[in-house]
Amino acid sequence: MPIAFNQLQYHFYRKFPNRIESRNFDMKKSIEMVCRLLQLKAPRRKFKLQCLLFPSPTVEGVNKCKIRYNFTGNDLPIIVAFIDSFDEIYKKRAKQVGGCQLYFVSEGGECKLFSKLIGKWKPINNMNETLDVPCLLFFFFLCLLTRTASSIRTACHDSERSALLQFKQSFLIRESASTKPSAYVKVQQWKPDEKGKGDCCAWDGVECNYNTGYVIGLDLSSSFLYGSIDSNSSLFHLLHLRRLNLSDNNFNASKIPSGISNLSRLSLLDLSSSAFSGQIPSQVLKISKLVVLDLSWNDLELRSPGPRNLVEKLTNLKELHLSGVNISSTVPQILGNLSSLVSLSLEDCSLHGELPATIFQLPNLQVLDLQNNPYLTGKFPGFNRSSLVEVLMLANTSFSGELPESIGNLNFLSHLDIRTCNFSGQLPSSIGELTKLKHMDIYVNHFSGPIPSSLANLTQLTYLSLSSNNFSPGTLSWLGNQTKLTVLGLVRANLYGKIPPSLGNLTQLTLLSFAYNQLTGQFPSWLENLGQLTYLSLAANQLMSPIPFWLGNLTQLTILDLGQNKLQGEIPQSIFNLGNLRTLYLHANQLNGTLRFESFLNLGNLIELQLSGNYLSLLTNITINRTVSKFRNLGLAFCNLPEFPDFLREQDKLEILELSGNKIHGQIPKWVWEMSKESLSYLGLSSNFLTGFDQPISSMTNLRMLNLYSNNLQGSIPIPPPSIFSYSISNNSLTGEFSPLLCNLSSLAFLDLSSNNISGMLPQCLANLSVSLLVLDLRNNSFFGSIPQLCMKGSQLRMIDFNQNQFQGQLPRSLANCDMLETLNMGNNQLNDTFPFWLGKLPGLRILILRRNQFHGTMEEQTENVEFPRLQIIDLSFNRFTGNLMPQQFQNWINMKVVDAGNLSYLQASSDLQTQTYNWDNYFTYSVTISSKGTETDYEKIQEFLVAIDFSSNSFEGCIPENIGNLKALRLLNLSNNVLSCRIPPSLGNLSNLESLDLSHNNLSGEIPMELLQLTFLGFLNVSQNNLTGQIPQGNQFATFESNSFGSNPGLCGKPLSKTCTSFQVSPPPLSSEEDRSREPSLEFDWKIILMGYGGGLVNGLAIGHIYAPNIKECIIESALL
């Protein structure tokens, strides 16, 4: 047995914990580990050891200090490296400035030192001799001896043997106490010999000083130790200990004993992942010689003493690892003075405040891990070329700013992880100079501009994620040289065009996601080369082709997501050869054909299947005695199902079931509510022909989302289980009243009961829901009576829609508590109140609809206090308002002054929901009915840039305020059917985005301002039924209007009226066609529905739910695997 094992084991295990598994270790592997250990000791010294085995002090094959040693398997020396004196020798005796040195002990015991001089090795007798020839290597390899177990060295001391045995006896051995695969019971052979003696220096995990026999190292990491430890432990009798490693055991929530201070000679203390708890004792700070301190991943706190005290006392630290320790403070400035620091790991420590920039510039720093401190801020400083940083991990912090161009100076950087931060600006092209970079993750930041082409230089990359940023549109031309990539995530990277065939070179890929881009063309044929793929997602692009047959050859696939494309044809039979598949998403394509569900049962590992939203006809009859997979996620929406599939009866692990858009008739059978009743979190049965329930639906104890809209359901409102988060049962034939039981649903965020026949008065308890509820949609029912108080303090309500009911009385003043409110729609009721000036204080109110009620009074009072800073749609039409339109009321409508035509998103309320397996981004798009271009128009979705004012059909009088012309974002303006007088203000010509202008049925006089010719987007104009005079302006949009736009104005003349002007007035000539084209809108205003993807993660999941019914809330499911 090699006697050097105990001396080497600790050092090997610390760097290579998975390599040493037993005492009978392989000599060659051990020597290779020594080589690697030395590389880690001097990582900046450039050298390569190809082999290290030799029977004699003969060195051959030396080339630029790349050392190769000969060996024969029958004459191997046994390594007994003096590891305990390594640091001392390394620092004090090897004082060379150039050349290479090799120090070892030969078989005869004679120590020799060889140096490399001009291609020749020669012995050196003087250890302090200075060499003249520079060398790339500063290399020192300890001593090699050919010895046996009978080697002459001092045995361990009786007292320390006894202390070790007592320490062993104080613990139980439990396999659950250690988690690493390399764990084994190191103390199993700790036994005295027949005489009660025995050399404890030969025990596993024990390291002794060669000359004195004192125990100087104890490595019991991953040893299955279970039990408590206190200051009376015999461990603290080992007063000569320099290295103590008890990591990856279970000390049963013990506090770190104060007796630790007895071990004052410790240079290394590793108690990581060992179930310690409580405050880190001040006694740890008394161990002033500590070079390595690792207390990570325990239930510990560092409060008193705090991090500043620790840094002040332990000034020799090179490695400080406190990940998972609750520090809950800022990072002390003094940490930036700890110049010896090589590795700093403070992950998940509840740090906050700004990180001192000096930490990045510590001269010896190689590893910096600060991830998962979400309130920690900071910016990258400039980096010098002298920096030794290899690892930067800042994921899930609040770091911000730009990546400096000087990041290219980090010559040794191999790992960059800044995902889920707030970085912005362009990625610097110098990032392509990081030629040693292997891992780069910038997922979920705000980077903009193009993806730099210099990324093509990063040929060492194995992991790359650029997902979910704000890059400008670009192609994949920079990708293809990174042939070592195993993981590639480019989700939502704004990519377009065809996927280049050069990506076929990336044959090492195991995970590939291009989801949520605008990639086009055929299904890429080069994918057939990527035989190691286990995860492939091309979801939410515009790929147009059949699914290729050869896809069935990628037999390693476990996840395949091709959803939301334009894939056509039938599903190829080869798909059913992918026996490892666990997830198959083919939803929202144009696939067709008749398919037997039984075919999917050949995929024995399949637990997630999404076929929704195609043109498939699915046959669900299953052969008798055929085993059916236990699905977790099953989407069969729009699959022409005539009934509930019978095989669902046996499904007891479903979390998601989508059966919307089929042809299922009649009652929902009782077994549906018993199926997976403890696991189901989402159930979609909308857009069928269901009529009722065989039993109450409250039996599903974990149901979070239930969609029953657009059926023929009758009876009273079914009460969902208390766990419900989103409940939509709109567009049915429900009757009865609003049950007070609904007020008890404390988790409810989305409630949509719209378009039913529900009546009665709303219960007073409704305000109880405002703390959790985001959306309350009761429109198009028959509710009556006064509206109860809706909002308590702390209300979360974003949208309230009571449109088209029979409510009476006043608006409830508790609406002033709805600080989060964005949409309030009380239109088409019988409310009798004055204008709610008090709503102007709501900071986020964007839509206010009071049309067709009995509101009255003037708009003149309190106008100096009215703000409505974010208001963009206001409809007061068909009420009884009187008085003048006051300029002050328009002055504060700031949101109507800012033009943002590039924002194509929709107004909506959204909220994340996380279940045990899935992340959901739930959103409910707002809708309104307003007058546009002379007709009432239903806007089922409201784009961010729609800005509208409708004060029509009231009794407003006086002049139109000039400052309405400052509301440059206006697209719809309707002041018709009032008694307004004076002239049309020329300032309306400043409303450059205006599309519809209705001033009809007033008492306006004077001429139509020529400035209105500037309204090149104007598609509708009505100034009829006024007292206007003069010639109608000619040209531009005015040339498109019919005569009814100007009728009943006796004083008007000119086209399109038949009346010619008696006194010719010169109008500006129409623009030339070329000028006209130059004024064409850069953005075509189009009310198409745009289905947008949401979510994140290196690999995004699928969008399912109500993407097939755009007027209802849409749901996104994410399955983030990385």
Automatic annotation (TrEMBL):
Pfam families per record: LRR_1 (PF00560), LRR_14 (PF23598), LRRNT_2 (PF08263)
SUPFAM superfamilies of this UniProt entry?
Answer: L domain-like, RNI-like
Gene Ontology CC entries for this record = plasma membrane
Domain Disease resistance R13L4/SHOC-2-like LRR: start-end pairs: 233-342, 392-593
Membrane topology label: Single-pass type I membrane protein
Q: What range(s) does the Leucine-rich repeat-containing N-terminal plant-type domain occupy?
A: 157-209
Taxonomically, the superkingdom here is Eukaryota
Main location per UniProt? Answer: membrane
Q: Which UniProt keywords apply?
A: Cell membrane, Glycoprotein, Leucine-rich repeat, Membrane, Receptor, Repeat, Signal, Transmembrane, Transmembrane helix
Enumerate the subcellular locations listed in this protein's record, separating them with semicolons.
Cell membrane
Family classification? Belongs to the RLP family.
**Name of the molecule in the record:** Receptor-like protein 12
Q: Where does this protein come from, organism-wise?
A: Durio zibethinus
Its taxonomic path starts at: Eukaryota, Viridiplantae, Streptophyta, Embryophyta, Tracheophyta
